[in-house]
């Protein structure tokens, strides 16, 4: 699967460099895999739907005050986002297989990667908006939360302050951009592969 992910990623990079549109990219062949001749409206639709989950959850929970409730509130935001994203991929793959029951594992995985690519772009834009417009003090807040965490666990003020400075890099914009894009791609590929494997396995058993 890692080889297919690499091939598809290279494909996107070459296509974008050549000035291809998203629809052109979706119609091309990835690593010798012939994608459906139909326009990839389903992948683009679900990429947008799943990709919009992050800004909706992140921004709404911020305005509801969850981001100032410490680490527990942050973990709740992550859990909600994860659950809704997983539901989105489930519905996307189900719709794809319902429309095209003979979709192969590899074709399904490529479609999942296209969806993940769209969500990754939206994730980058979401984090940029959050750090620059919505909550520019997020990094400083997390540094302070980290310091308080170490103090609550018995560290001295000096040690807690020193250790908390590492959180400035962890919770900085660059780190969030890398994490958001990477998680979107990896999660999309993994969950799509898992679902397609189950679907194809059931299809084989039903033919027997």
Give a brief outline of the structure.
With 208 residues, the chain is mostly helical. Helix content is 81%, strand content 2%. α3 runs parallel beside α5.
Assembly context of the chains = single chain
Mean pLDDT: 83
Compute the number of helices: 9
Largest sheet composition: 2 strands, antiparallel
Rg on CA atoms, Å = 20 Å
Anisotropy-based shape: elongated
* Uncertain regions spanning at least 5 consecutive residues: 25-36
Please give the alpha-carbon distance between the first and last residues: 27 Å
DSSP helix fraction: over 70%
Compressed to H and E, one letter per element, the order equals HHEEHHHHHHH
State the total count of DSSP E strands.
Answer: 2
Helix/strand structural class:
mainly alpha
Q: Which range does the strand content fall in?
A: under 5%
Strand adjacency order, main sheet: 1-2
Describe the structure.
This protein is mainly alpha-helical. The chain has helices at residues 2-17, 22-27, 41-63, 70-99, 105-134, 138-152, 157-164, 166-170, 173-207, and strands at 29-30, 33-34. α4 (70-99) packs parallel to α9 (173-207), α5 packs antiparallel against α9 (173-207) and α6 (138-152) packs antiparallel against α7 (157-164). The relative contact order is 0.12. The model is unreliable at 25-36 (pLDDT under 50).
